[in-house]
Design goal:
Structural class: mainly beta
Distance between the termini: 46 Å
Strand order of the largest sheet: 4-3-6-7
Strand content: over 45%
Largest sheet: 4 strands, antiparallel
Number of strands: 16
Radius of gyration: 22 Å
Length: 191
């Protein structure tokens, strides 16, 4: 469990006996969205500790992890004196609890009806959430399109009927920047 800047847990054997005085190593990695799926990115920090006589451990989360603005995958490995080990993982939000994701199933949009830009808001568990955003579509030499919208499960619905045909870049900024990150320069959107 991760709470108040401390990762804690209890190491037990398969039969429920405490794993006493065992080494604990903890790696903290970015857990990011790549298109429509999640994956573990770079390791931000690592730290170590030891279990007590009852198998409990509590290790301070490094400051560089707490100040990161992303989801974090925490992997703890407990290694007994005999060299046996077991891993456990959890994911928690560091920084902002919501994330904007561009779900690029297509990059070409028909402007004869309202366009649904595939932008979703997800919480740290990867579950859909809602947020109000300001969006901008820009292209060299073309008029900029912009507006404010609520992101729903389908995405951001915009009226682009008067948009000039062209290759645009999309930027999406949440109205509440304290709770959600931004998307900048999603390129190659064709209207």
């Amino acid at each position: 469990a991760v709470a108040d800047g401390v990762i804690s847990g209890r190491a037990v054997t398969y039969t429920g006996m405490a794993v006493a005085e065992a080494g604990v190593s903890v790696d903290f990695s970015r857990y990011e969205w790549w298109g429509w799926r999640r994956g573990t990115g770079e390791t931000i920090a690592s730290t170590t500790g030891t279990t007590d006589a009852e198998g409990h451990f509590a290790i301070a989360v490094p400051q560089e992890v707490l100040s990161a603005d992303c989801d974090i995958q925490c992997t703890a490995r407990v290694t007994s004196a005999a060299g046996e080990y077991a891993d456990a993982r959890t994911v928690f939000a560091a920084g902002k609890p919501l994330h904007l994701v561009y779900d690029a199933r297509t990059d070409r949009f028909d402007t004869s009806s309202p366009v649904v830009l595939p932008v979703r808001v997800l919480n740290s568990d990867g579950k859909p959430a809602n947020a109000r955003v300001r969006w901008t579509l820009s292209a060299a030499g073309l008029p900029e399109l912009s507006g404010t919208a609520d992101v729903d499960s389908a995405g951001i619905t915009i009226n682009a009927a008067n948009a000039a045909a062209g290759r645009y870049s999309l930027s999406v900024v949440p109205v509440d920047t304290a709770r959600c990150d931004s998307l900048h320069a999603i390129a190659d959107i064709y209207l």
